[in-house]
Amino acid sequence: MGVTIDLLRCTGCGACTYICPVGVLSVDDMKCRVSEGCISCGKCVEQCLWQAIALEEKPMKKRKKRDE
Ligand code: SF4
Ligand code: SF4
Fold first, then answer.
1. What is the pTM of this model?
2. Is 41 in the pocket of ligand 2 (CB under 6 A)?
3. What residues contact 17, with CB distance under 8 A and at least 6 apart?
4. What is the pLDDT of residues 48-68, one digit of tens each?
């Protein structure tokens, strides 16, 4: 679980750091950083105007085979 930050898109505006309910986002050197403890709520993804944040795909999710 967690989020990935596209550092090329991130402007360091800091908007996501205020919305995160568990406070794992911070801005350092004009780039967003995420630390341990993200609960994958998705709020920061919606908040980021530059679409710099994406939720990581759950590793448990497996595709069903078509011809089963
Ligand atoms: S809201 Fe987006 S652009 Fe702003 S600091 Fe967070 S990730 Fe970067
Ligand atoms: S998905 Fe939720 S918990 Fe994770 S960094 Fe974004 S706002 Fe914080």
1. 0.84
2. yes
3. 23, 25, 26, 27, 32
4. 999 999 999 876 656 666 665
